[in-house]
Amino acid sequence: MTLARYEMLMAVVEQESLTGAAQVLGCTQSAVSHGIEALEKELGFAVLKRSRAGVKLTAEGERLMPAVRGLLNSAEQLEQQAASIRGLEAGTVRIGAFTSVAVHWLPGVLKEFQTDYPKVDFKLLNGDYHDVEQWLSDGSVDIGFVNLPCELDCEYIPLMEDRLLAILPEDSRFASYPRFPLSECETEPFISLLQSSDHDARRALEAAGVKPNVRFYTKDDYAIIAMVEQGLGMSIMPELLLKGRHDRLLTLPLVPEAKRVIGLAIAAGSKAGPATRRFADYVKRYVTERA
After folding, report:
1. CA 177, CA 253: separation in Å to the nearest integer?
2. Count of beta carbons in the 10 Å neighbourhood of residue 17
3. End-to-end alpha-carbon separation of the chain, Å?
4. How would you classify the pairing of strands 143-148 and 189-193?
5. Most CB atoms closer than 10 Å: which of 31, 168, 200, 220?
6. Angle between helices 59-85 and 274-290 (to 10 degrees)
């Protein structure tokens, strides 16, 4: 069994492309193709199917992937533990984050951490709440930023309460209001994230007993901001996501008040290596001091 071949398989699955996997791994497409062929020969069955649409797992490959993730996770933990014993912090920390954290927190935390631990590498996956929870669940990341409460089998560290705001076109009739009544969402055109991503607004609206007048759905936070700017409707977003932006928007606190709790989820038990846990310490300190 050659670990490098399983790393190639994981890269192909994540990139959905032999070319993309080669770029990530820093080798040629031919090397990746030969590595996968050798792996399939060793296993005795095909793990990938190729078509014009890209590369996908076979049914057998799908069944194999949980074990592959477990193997690569164990190898990474071994590397981190060995480095820790030698007095070094090394290895790769795999992080899952949603947009507001990826934009406003991670660059600063990574800069501080890399200054102290230059031998640690990072793999960053950016998605929505659902994506991060899925990556934590299937072992694709070691640590992830989540919206609490969360029901995964992880250790949780609450980081910050982040209030939710109404965002409206700057010429909205609510411009003179000190706060935005959530009940108005029943009549105002509402722009929503997809249901799998829209935990924040949905929780606030359900708590207030309000059914929004949803006119548009999208998965992208910044697409919502652009649509609100164009006067297509209003929405509800976390304050951290809007930090530092100078869009043509009106932002108002909600009535009743609503917020989200941003937390850090760490793979439970011994699954997280020393570098991962040290990184969690840096996150806590960064948020406490600066956020």
Report:
1. 10
2. 16
3. 46
4. unpaired
5. 168
6. 80
Is there a domain that residue 287 lies in? no
Structure tokens at 1: 């069994």
With 90 as the cut, is the pLDDT of residue 97 above it? Answer: yes
H helix and E strand count, the chain: 11, 12
Calculate mean pLDDT across residues 164-169.
Answer: 96
Whichever domain contains 173, its CATH number is: 3.40.190.290
CB 9 within 8 A of CB 68: yes
> Closest by alpha carbon to 168, among 180, 156, 160, 178?
180
Q: What pLDDT shows up at residue 67?
A: 87
For 252, the domain range is 162-259
Measured N-to-C along each axis, helices 129-138 and 59-85 cross at an angle, to the nearest 10 degrees, of: 80
Q: Are 163 and 240 in contact (CB under 8 A)?
A: no
Q: Is residue 139 part of a domain?
A: no
Q: State CA 33 to chain mean position distance.
A: 29
Write out the two tokens for 95: 């992080």
Name the token pair of 160. 């910050």
pTM: 0.70
